[in-house]
Structures are given as C-alpha cells and as structure tokens.
Amino acid sequence: MTTLTKQPDPGLSVPRGPRKSRKRGKPSDGFRGIGDLKVALFFIAPAMVGLILFYLVPTIRGIYLSFTEYSILGDPEWIGARNYERIAKDPLFWNALGVTSEYVVINIVLQTALALGLAILMHRVAKSTLIRGALLMPYLMANVIAALLWFWMLDYQIGIINQIIEWTGLPRVAFFGSEQWAIPTQALINTWRHMGYTALLIFAGLQAIPNSVYEAASIDGSKAVSTFWRITLPLLRPVLVLVLVVTVIGSFQVFDTVAVTTAGGPVNATRVLQFYIYQRAFNEQDFGYGSALAVILFLILAIVAFIQMKFLRGNQSDLD
Amino acid sequence: MTTLASHKNGARRRPFSRPFNWRRAIALTLLAVAIAVSILPFYWVLRTALSSNGSLAANSANLLPADFNLGAFKRVFGLQSASEAIAEGGSGASINFWQYLWNSLLFSGITTACAVFFSSMAAYAFSRLRWKGRDAVFSLFLATMLVPPIFTALPNFLLIKNLGLLNSMLGLVLPYLFMTPFAIFFMRQFFLNMSREVEEAAMLDGAKHWRIFFQIIMPNAAAPIATLALLTFMGQWNEYFWPLLVGTSEESRVLTVGLGVFKSQSPQGAPDWSGLMAATLVSATPVLILFAIFGKRIVNSIGFNGTK
Q: Transmembrane residues, as ranges (chain B) (predicted)?
C-alpha cells in the first residue's frame, strides 16, 4: 500500500490568497524567516520521538552491533569486521541467500504473471467491488493464518489437495516434508495471499489509462494483442515496477510462514535469511552476528530498490 | 481511489448482443476459478473446525464436517478439561484464546489510535504549515520506509529489554505508538488537497493552529482517517515478528503468536487439525467482520498512490 510515485510536489508551492492563484515551483515563496517553525515543532514532536527512538537510533545501533561480539549478557565487544569475515565463509548464510533468492524468484514470476492476468480479466469482464473484495480476502489474513490453513490443506496424509492429486492418478506430494518442494510451497502460500492484492494494484493502473489512448490505437487498426504489448504494458510500467519492488522487498523478508510451518527444515531447505537472523540472534544469543546478517539483508534490499527504480524508471509515467 | 475514473465509457467493451461470446465466457470462467481459489480455503477451515478431530482421517475428502461437533472451539477457549482435550486429539496444554483475543485487540487498538493521531499531527505540519527544512525532514520520514523491520527489531528488542518492558503490553506497543511513515505520507497527501479557504477564514478570526487542526482539519479528514485506521488496525492485527520477540507471556501474547504456540504444542504425529482450524478461524474473525462492514472502503483504498 505504500505506493510512492514521484510527482511534482504540490506541497512545495505555498498557495497565497485565493486558490486559483496557486503557482508551482517556487519553494522559497512565502517563507518568512523560520515561518511556522515553532508550531510545526509542536505538531511533529510525537512523530519525531518515534523516528529518533525507534528508527534512527536503532539503525545506528544496529550497524554498531554488527561490528561487535555481543551475547545480550555483558557489554558488546568491538571486534571490527570479523562478523562479516565469518559470514563470507558461513555455508549456512550462503544457503540462506540461495533459498531466499529461489523464493523471491518464484514469487516474482508466479505472482506478477497471475496478478497481471487477473487484473486484465477484471478490467475486461467484471469490475464489481464484490469480486475485487473476494480476491482481496486472502491478503487480509495474517501470514500465520495463511500458513496454517495451507499446512492443513497440503498435509501429506489427509490434506484435501493431496486427495485431489491422488484422484487424478498422480503420486502424493510431500509439500512441506521434501527439500525440493519446501520453498516452492512457501512461495505458493505467499502467492495465494498476495495474488488478489497485486491484481488490484495493477487493476488500478489499468483504470488510470485513458480510453482515448485505446481509441486512437483502434482507429489506427491495432489488433488486441499488439495493443496489449505496445500500449497497455508500457503504460503500466510504473505500476508494474512498483509491484516488483514491493514483491521483491517483501519476499526477501519472508519469515512468518516459515517460522510457523517448517521452521527452516527439512534440513536447511527453508532456512531463509530472516529466519537465520532470528535463530542466530535469539536462539543462539549471537546478537553481533545477527546484526551483521541484518545489515547485509538491508544492503541487498537497498540495492534491489535502487536498481529497480533507476533502470526501470519506475518513478516516471509515460502518461504525463 | 483511482478506480472510478473510466467506468462509463463502453467503447472498448465487447457488445453483449452476440449469440454466445465464448471469449467472454472463458474470461468469466478463469475469474471464477481465481475467486474459488481465494475463498474456498476459508470454507475448508470452517468445515474442519466443526469436525471432530478423530473422524477427519476417515472422511478426509468429505465436503461436510466430519462428525459435527464444537469440541474444537471449546479446546481453543480453554473450556475443555485436559483429559477431554487429549481424548479428542488435543495436546491438553492450557490455551486460552479469549486472553489472546483481548491482547490482540489492545495491541492493535492502542497502536492504531495513537499512530494515526500522531501521524496526522505530523502530516499537518508537513502540508499546511510553512517552515524551513520541512521537505528535508519529511524525506527523512519517508526514507524509514526502506528500512526492513528485522533490522530495527534487534536494537529495539534490546531497548525494550533494557527498559524492563519485555513481556508487557507497553513494551509491545511502544515502537508503533508515535507514527508510521506510511500514515504520515497518507494523511499528508490528503491534507495537501484540502481547500485553504475555511482555514484562512479561521486564521483571520485569530484561531490558533491547534484549534484549526482539531476543529477544521480533523473533522474534514474523517473519511481518510477511517480508511487509514482500518488499514493500520488490520496490519497490526496480523503482526507476528515483533510480538514473537517481545510478547511471550500469557498477558502479552497476541493471537498470531498464540496460534504459533498452539500449533507447536499440537501432537506431532497426529496434529489436532480441528482445534488448529478453530483457532485459525477465531483469529481471522475480527478481520472478517471488519471486512464485511467496511469492505468497499478497504477495496477502494488499494491502489491509492496519493495522486488522486
């Protein structure tokens, strides 16, 4: 829901007098010295406390801790970059990075493709709120709920899905129990939960494309398929980039469903990054190492967001 | 909120007059499949919760509850004795979802009320007031959206621990109380588009900013505040990681964490599926009720990007 599209910021221009005389692009206009600074400080004070106490200070402290040896008891002991050196040689870290990436990739492909298809279907044949509401239901459920629900439905012995698989003559699948299936299964749960939400985001993007664009295309004799590839998809780019960013960043932080169902197993098959961080920091009380892992996750996410915004130009719309 | 735009124009719609439009039929079928996939699992949860656990294995594909009874719900709310629970396939460990339900309600209610209010205050300063450095400070708030929660969770856990607030409701709600970057962004976007006229008239009358905020801005923003509160509440209701770290005592355990504990207590070889599904249903119910009442508002908020 955090959909940030960069727009010419209307907040920068300060309206003076009647509304119609609003002008854009003169940020200095209207600032008399410090302006309303005193009042503003009063209004942002609570939010500022939250920002400093629970975002800024923890960020600095987290980076500091990543350079220490710290087991909660006693004081953190500065050890330089040794945590990072250990991580570079830690097979469990590389395994975590691998399985998390696998999870992310399955999610991107499956979720984006399904959601795009669904959004187009909705746009074509049914725009009712009821249908959109039905598709949104899974998204409103907690990850823990989605996880348990599928843990039951996909149970090897008496889960309904395996019953259906057996009726079709195929062998039962150990969705959570086999190393090969564990990550795809987690990704399927996530896709189930997010598919409708993502479809609704794309649907909103489709609705924003003015009909005149399509009319022009049909007058020019464009066929439906080529209209989709040459007009719809390019115009959807900002929404699709946003969906990608949200999907990738969210998927990299998978934790809840894994923690409730497979807890990292079988063997290391679902020991995803955040679960590994959790284990190192809270089960093994190795806060320094856990913090260093968290810094790396942070860096990965920052790089991913940067690349997607920079190269896919997600913050620019071709409609303007 | 961007969905109302291009409804009326039927230019691209295929005409209905054709005898049988099989492309449309296929499209509707696919849509129906997607809806079924989204909704049927909820029926299966209900069906399982109303079954008796012992009969599930023998009737695993029966569409109706297997050997209908309410024992699963009794187990979830701690109304069965340990021996009764074990006889019906439960673990017999004490579990009380009333308590978790109450904790979840407190956790989500308190954080939503405070965060929405304080974020609105900040959003007012970022939209209706003029001061040096305003946009730089606002960018700083926005930037925190990029910080993954796990990253700040470790130091925040240490802070709450040092304050002696582990396993308390206060420790649980504290990091969420003051603001969420999304809420500030959301409210600012709305405030920016509000007309200044009433506000300016009040200014001329010598009204102070806090009076303008409470008597003009907030009442006029009732609709977006309601939407924001809904979204925040549901987000908090579903929160798992932070409560897992901080709220592990009975007095501070919320539903999501309780569900996880219930699952891990369930006998390994033959899990108490009907108990688990009853617990799942109980956890989902408040959100389902909110959705039944405010569905339209929630659906229309998806795709909100602050530009419309």
A: 21-46, 105-126, 138-160, 172-191, 212-234, 273-294
CB contact at 8 A, A236 and A176:
no
Confirm or reject CATH 1.10.3720.10 for domain B99-265, answering yes or no: yes
Is residue B119 within 8 angstroms of chain A, CB to CB?
yes
Whether A70 is covered by a domain: the verdict is no
Is residue A18 situated within a structural domain?
no
Q: Report the helix count and the strand count for chain A, using DSSP H and E.
A: 15, 2
How many contacts, defined by CB atoms under 8 Å, are there between A and B? Answer: 326
- Which H/E stretch holds residue A147? helix A143-153
Angle at alpha carbon of residue A108, lines to A105 and A114, rounded to 5°: 135
Q: CB–CB of B34 and A37 under 8 A?
A: no
Structure tokens of A199?
């479809």
A70 membership: H or E segment, kind and range = strand A68-71
pLDDT in tens, chain A (320 residues): 444 443 444 444 444 444 443 444 444 444 445 568 888 899 999 999 999 999 999 999 999 999 998 887 888 889 988 999 999 999 999 999 999 999 999 999 999 999 999 999 988 887 788 888 899 999 999 999 999 999 999 988 888 898 899 889 898 888 898 889 999 999 999 999 999 999 999 998 888 888 888 888 888 877 778 888 888 888 888 888 888 888 888 999 999 999 999 888 788 889 999 999 999 999 989 999 999 999 999 999 988 888 877 776 655 666 65
Can you give the CATH number for the domain in which A142 is found?
Answer: 1.10.3720.10
Domain range for A279 is 90-311
Contact between chains at A129 and B287 (C-beta distance less than 8 A): no
- In the chain, the amino acid numbered B305 is N
Of B57, B118, B177, the CB nearest to A158: B57
Judge whether A172 lies within some domain.
Answer: yes
ipTM of the complex model = 0.85
- Predicted TM-score (pTM) of this structure: 0.85
Q: How many CB atoms lie within 10 A of CB B116?
A: 23
Number of domains in chain A: 1
Residue A84 in any domain: the answer is no
Parse chain B into domains and list their residue ranges. 22-91+268-308, 99-265
Q: Token pair 């990550």 is at which residue?
A: A183
